[in-house]
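Task card 7
Instruction: Convert sequence to structure tokens.
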Amino acid sequence: MAEQITIEVVYALPAKQSLLTIAVAPDATVQQAIEQSGILQLYPEINLEEQKVGIWSRPVKLTEQVKATDRIEIYRSLIADPKDLRRRRAEKAKEEGRADKVTGGRVFEK
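Output:
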């Protein structure tokens, strides 16, 4: 039997998380490891053509080779753009008088 390396494949939803530890061939790609893990059967909504993946929080391509102890993470799509959310919070703070209308910084009472 050929030598194998151990890796993890993780995916999380708000109410359910899965961490699968599997053994793969040393020359396996990220995509091969994900498919071999069976996580695509557990979560049929995962679409590797659209969703990003990473290893230990570092974005990677599906064609990258895995190394021993790698943790492959499958990321969900964002519900809202973080920049838009921050912009809306800042505008609301200005309207409510909690932020300076010019600089956007906090207003301190003297």
